[in-house]
Design a protein that fits this description.
single chain, 295 residues, alpha/beta, Rossmann fold, 2 domains, five-stranded parallel beta sheet, 9% strand, ST_Response_Regulator, CheY-like_superfamily, YcbB
Length: 295
């Protein structure tokens, strides 16, 4: 990934550059202390991601994004801000900002957000290539219908910023398994039954089945934890953010997310321990997928 940093604070630019380099997340192709100085360089270098400060003299972050888009820039934007202003934050999201990084800069938060951005960038490229390939071979209406369950689930996971996480494939597999059953159920079976049902392959031994089921559970747990952290980051800076408002109270114990928000707002180096309810997450995801699939 190729990054460009626009921030009038040299210390912030240095910290972000070090986090990117030390985290092996890509390269910083350029930096600028203001939007006016950064526009021409960004248009010349075509970075994948622009990390841009919200409040800067002469040309602020939102105005810079508008100017870049008017010039045809297609990269992603991550806003850097220490101001919690709902109107400005809402406007930033409308302009296409993917995520917010809070000041003072927290290394854990930056790594988490940049990794999600990288996975989304790669996945979008892969999905685009797949769509183009399918269009070239004349995909039939029936095939599109069969793949729509996966598309629905991936869209929801993408909203939570976990589409590239290690457990996202497991989550898709579970929902596809449930949707392919002859009889739809309102309540899911036990997680143990569910894991074993989707991991059962040929003559797998009982020990192999238990081991793979346990591994699946751990992958899904880590992925859901990442969703909690992502939504907490959104809520910490903008309580009215659409993804936060929609997913946080439906898929999770809201108090757990609230605790994480407080930890982020206070700038703690380590986030609080979160209780994960896997069954609730899968139950809500299954019901939402079923509703969207049948309409």
């Amino acid at each position: 990934m190729r990054y460009f940093i626009v921030d009038d604070d040299p210390a912030s630019r240095t910290m972000l550059k070090n986090i990117i380099m030390e985290g092996d997340l890509g390269v910083v192709v350029g930096e600028a202390e203001s939007g006016i100085n950064g526009v021409s360089s960004i248009l010349t270098m075509h970075p994948d991601v622009v990390l841009i400060d919200l409040l800067m003299p002469e040309l602020d972050g939102i105005e810079t994004i508008e100017r870049l888009k008017m010039e045809g820039f297609k990269g992603q934007f991550i806003m850097i801000s220490q101001i919690v202003n709902k109107e400005m934050v809402g406007e930033a999201y409308e302009k296409g900002v993917e995520f917010f990084i809070h000041k003072p800069i927290n290394r854990v938060e930056v790594l988490s957000i940049l990794k999600k951005t990288t996975e989304q960038f790669r996945l979008k490229g892969s999905l685009l290539a797949i769509q183009e390939s399918l269009a070239n071979i004349g995909l039939t209406k029936t095939i599109r219908r069969q793949s729509s369950v996966k598309e629905i689930v991936l869209a929801i996971l993408n909203d939570m910023g976990i589409i590239g996480e290690v457990g996202s494939d497991d989550i898709v597999t579970i929902i596809e398994f449930l949707m392919n059953q002859d009889k739809r159920v309102a309540q899911l079976p036990s997680l143990k039954e569910l894991y074993e049902a989707v991991t059962m392959k040929g003559e797998s031994s009982e020990s192999d089945l238990k081991r793979e089921s346990k591994a699946m559970e751990q992958r899904i747990r880590r992925t859901i934890l990442t969703a909690v952290n992502n939504l907490a980051s959104l809520g910490a800076i903008d309580y009215t953010n659409h993804e936060f408002e929609y997913y946080a109270p439906r898929y999770f114990d809201f108090q757990e997310i609230r605790n994480q928000m407080i930890s982020i707002q206070e700038g703690r180096s380590e986030l609080v321990k979160v209780k994960i309810n896997i069954k609730k997450f899968l139950q809500v995801l299954y019901l939402e997928t079923m509703e969207k699939y049948t309409h």
